[in-house]
Design a protein that fits this description.
Low-confidence stretches of chain A: 1-12, 214-218
CATH class of chain B: Mainly Alpha
Number of strands of chain B: 0
Largest interface: A-B, 72 and 66 residues
Helix content of chain A: 55-70%
Order of helices and strands of chain B: HHHHHHHH
Strand content of chain B: under 5%
Structural class of chain B: mainly alpha
Structural class of chain A: mainly alpha
CATH architecture of chain B: Orthogonal Bundle
Strand content of chain A: under 5%
Number of helices of chain B: 8
Number of domains of chain B: 1
Largest sheet of chain B: none
Shape of chain A: flat
Mean pLDDT of chain B: 79
Oligomer: heterodimer
Number of domains of chain A: 2
Radius of gyration of chain B: 20 Å
CATH topology of chain B: Arp2/3 complex 21 kDa subunit ARPC3
Number of strands of chain A: 0
Order of helices and strands of chain A: HHHHHHHH
Number of helices of chain A: 8
Helix content of chain B: over 70%
């Protein structure tokens, strides 16, 4: 579905508004739903992923160690008396009950990781900072983020050079770790702060921060919500209502 | 007007209206210089996570997470000392969290939440308590204690409240296996919290003292 593909010029694509709606909906469902109803948000985020951000499945790697531990621990340690009052269990075998609780917890974790990952991978950082700009009414945040992002690479080079120099002089052993870190941090931070002066002058020379008396070339046209964003918002709202109605009807 | 004149204007608390430097960017009264300081210190924090984090990991240093948080506290306190305005630390934390997402190539949720929460705690301490060495150390303590508490908050959020039951049960079973009184386990946990709190306090004081020294060096 080309129309749903990101980054193709001239095609509609999910914008920041739709992505925010999908994220909030998935998180709300993951937190409030339990047992079999968790399959609903799982199906939801999986569908969103397949449509918008298939790369995000790679982010599930961060759960590869934690999920087996959780499932094993809950299988061995869970007992029926831990079941919250007012909820029914699917089985009376403690081991099986613990295993199902572990699976439920794992599904919840998968939904939340997928939802956040989809959001971050789908939305451009510039769109996100644009949204923050719009909410705060200022271009300051995107200025700070852009400056920090561009400065990070040269600063990392400086820090690595300093680190190597300290190591060549016998630093970064266990016995002198604190002194080595102090030297590295103080020199890198001081260098960075000293450069701040020049950066501030350079920014102001380009009229950043000047009051806008007339339409400015810095002014950015914020994108409006596309039909896909509206559809995402409507679909998410519908799904959340459906989930709550189903839970009320079936429990 | 020379750079040194600007610095003396700033340090004496007066700003010369004839320069563009005095103009505000419109973000709660942050000047361009303030925003640059926040950006630069956020970049230092992000770089320290990458460079020092890798080095400490290679050295198998215990409590390396607490060590990196202490560096974050140091930089947050320095930031607030250079930009004594509410919101500066929080903005720095949000920028570092976003930089972290971009630098590691994958969305690892836990450290991002940790960075944001640490920044929020230091911001709250220094906003309500004022900018001083005392609030720096209190903020540092709160941020460091958060690193200890963090997994117990984030994992129930990710996995659900059943996680707390498993933690409680694990402590109970573990104390029986090791023959330790559960009350002693509580004491051990409190000792860990105290170690983190002391590390945060030291980081806050060191950050404050460094920022005063850095201001003097930059004025030369």
């Amino acid at each position: 579905m080309e129309i749903l593909t990101r980054g193709k010029a001239g095609t509609a694509a999910l914008g920041v508004y739709g992505a925010v709606a999908l994220l909030l909906g998935a998180l709300l469902l993951a937190i409030t739903m339990g047992v079999v109803f968790l399959l609903l948000p799982l199906a939801y985020v999986t569908t969103v992923f397949i449509l918008f951000s298939r790369d995000s499945f790679r982010d599930l790697r961060q759960l590869t160690k934690l999920v087996p531990i959780i499932v094993i621990a809950s299988t061995l340690l869970w007992q029926e008396q831990y079941q919250p009052s007012g909820t029914s269990s699917a089985t009376s075998f403690p081991l099986m009950l613990g295993f199902l609780v572990g699976i439920e917890m794992s599904v919840r974790a998968v939904v939340m990781v997928l939802a956040i990952s989809a959001f971050v991978r789908t939305v451009d950082i510039s769109e996100l900072t644009g949204l923050l700009e719009r909410l705060s009414g200022s271009e300051a945040f995107s200025f700070v983020f852009g400056l920090a992002f561009n400065f990070t690479q040269s600063l990392e080079r400086i820090a690595r050079d300093t680190l190597n120099a300290i190591k060549l002089r016998g630093g970064f052993r266990v016995r002198n770790l604190a002194v080595s870190v102090r030297h590295l941090l103080s020199s890198t931070t001081l260098k960075a702060l000293a450069k701040s002066e020049d950066m501030a002058y350079a920014a102001e020379a380009r009229a950043f921060g000047a009051r806008r008396e007339m339409p400015s070339p810095l002014h950015r046209d914020y994108p409006n919500a596309s039909w896909l964003d509206v559809a995402a918002l409507a679909g998410t709202t519908g799904l959340v209502i459906l989930a709550f109605v189903l839970r009320l009807a079936l429990t | 007007m020379s750079p040194s004149t600007h610095r003396s204007d700033r340090n004496s608390g007066t700003e010369t209206s004839s320069t563009i430097r005095t103009q505000r960017s419109g973000f709660r009264g942050f000047s361009t210089r303030d925003l640059v300081y926040v950006a630069v210190l956020a970049a230092v924090w992000a770089v320290s996570e990458n460079v020092l984090g890798a080095q400490l990991h290679a050295m198998n240093i215990p409590f390396s997470g607490a060590f990196l948080t202490a560096i974050g506290v140091f930089l947050m306190v320095t930031c607030r000392s250079f930009v004594p305005k509410p919101g500066s630390i929080l903005m720095m934390g949000v920028v570092v969290a976003l930089l972290r997402i971009l630098s590691i190539g994958a969305v690892v949720i836990s450290p991002i939440i940790a960075i944001f929460m640490e920044a929020l705690l230091v911001e709250l301490a220094m906003t309500f308590g004022g900018t001083s060495v005392v609030t720096s150390s209190i903020g540092g303590m709160l941020a460091e204690v958060w690193t200890f508490v963090h997994p117990f908050v984030v994992q129930p959020l990710l996995f659900g409240l059943s996680m707390l039951v498993i933690y409680g049960r694990t402590i109970s079973v573990g104390s029986k296996i090791l023959g330790i009184d559960p009350a002693n386990i509580v004491a051990i946990i409190l000792a860990f919290v105290a170690i983190h709190a002391i590390a945060g306090l030291v980081a806050g004081v060191v950050g404050w003292r460094f920022s005063l020294g850095a201001k003097r060096v930059l004025q030369r």
